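Worked problem 6 (solution included).
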Amino acid sequence: MRALTKALVSVTAAVGIAAGGLATTGTAVAAPAPTQQQAVTGEVGTLAVVNLGLSTAQAKDWQCWLRALGYKPGTIDGQLGTSSWKAAQEFFTPQGFYKDDIDGIVGPHTIQALQRYLNSRNLGYNLDVDGIAGKRTKAAFAHYADRFSHLC
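Solution. The predicted structure is:
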């Protein structure tokens, strides 16, 4: 009888643990808000939105500019997510600034492409092409994005 009781208690405990685990699946960790921005310092971006220091208005301007050139940045919402960065990577590639997968990830190669592109505009940015989105890169990107405020 003791063996049957132990087996029944073990099965009941296992079912309870499984049921409790299923009931709480996906609720233990809260996801970041969609408007949260990631500070990129050369590592691969993990959040969906990486504005690299642009305000929402400047990011919308960048998205509108990419769209005006025939690229598909996704929803014009001022949140530079995967679609926006894929469009930017597609834009940088034929110019020779980007030579990696078109994946929408804002890693060192995407940042280097942005730095190369900004330097090519002859606006005196003189950025180090180091793949790090530091203060100067972010400031240059914001300054450049301001040029497209008339497109949206």
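Discussion: The mean pLDDT is 79.
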